[in-house]
Design a protein that fits this description.
alpha+beta, 11 strands, 15% helix
Length: 252
């Protein structure tokens, strides 16, 4: 068991850890595809523990309560991404990112527009021209500030880059927002180097009650698949419903 702290730098909402980053921490010491489940709010700047054994990684709080769990997953649980758009198409899509005109999570490690380069990831996806509603894309170039000693982007940072695009795929499709990442099942095929231009894509899959499912992927500028994941988002409000029939007042 090792000590671990999610620093305030890695926030999603202001007072909790970024879901993709936390899921990536749960996945980074496991081989192949990993299913990461976040069970509770992840506190910032607070001592936590990581325990990896028998093919699982557990994140525990100071009292030993389970915060998150990572375990091996079947590659069949991962979505097949649509074909990668070109870098210019991704840049054009990013200009349509909903966060440019509305406030969502302005200091989020993944998508916060108020974070500076090298401090946050600044991943902005928007509707891809000519694609189905919600199919989104945007460019992302990993910053040297996040690189390891080999100059490569760590697994948890890659998972963080894929976090919010899945959320925005549903925002773009339906014009509504308010959800938290519950489960992310993903794999990293190749870690991009710092300064390597990449393309992030996201697309809505289906809804089941208050759960929204999305696919996300990371490509090189040439279209090489670098990483992909399946996400489960938990809606914070009631699920959309069909319009109710008019109520006819009873006659006295």
């Amino acid at each position: 068991m090792t000590d671990f702290v999610v620093g305030a730098r890695f926030c999603g909402p202001p007072n909790s850890g970024n879901g993709g980053y936390v899921a990536g921490v749960l996945a980074r010491d496991l081989e192949g595809p990993v299913k990461a489940v976040i069970r509770a709010r992840v506190p910032l700047d607070t001592p936590l523990s990581l325990k990896t054994e028998n093919g699982e990684t557990l994140m525990l709080d100071a009292e030993g309560a389970l915060i998150g769990k990572g375990e091996a997953a079947d590659a069949g649980q991962l979505p097949e991404p649509p074909a990668a758009p070109g870098l210019e198409a991704a840049q054009a899509a990013a200009a349509r990112h909903p966060g440019h005109g509305q406030r969502f999570h302005p200091i989020c490690f993944s998508c916060g527009p108020e974070r500076e380069e090298g401090d946050g990831l600044r991943v902005f996806v928007g509707q891809l021209e000519g694609a189905e509603p919600g199919v989104s894309a945007g460019p992302w170039t990993p910053h040297a500030a996040f690189a390891d000693e080999d100059g490569l982007t760590p697994v948890e940072v890659i998972w963080a880059a894929l976090d919010c695009p899945g959320y925005f795929a549903w925002v773009i499709k339906e014009g509504r927002h308010g959800a938290l990442l519950g489960t992310m099942t993903g794999e990293v095929l190749r870690r991009p180097a710092a300064g390597e231009p990449c393309i992030v894509t996201a697309w809505p899959l289906e809804r089941d009650g208050r759960k929204e499912f999305a696919g996300v992927a990371l490509f090189s500028a040439s279209g090489e698949l670098l990483a992909r994941a399946h996400q489960v988002w938990i809606m914070m409000g009631p699920p959309p419903q069909a319009a109710a029939a008019p109520v006819v007042a009873a006659q006295a």
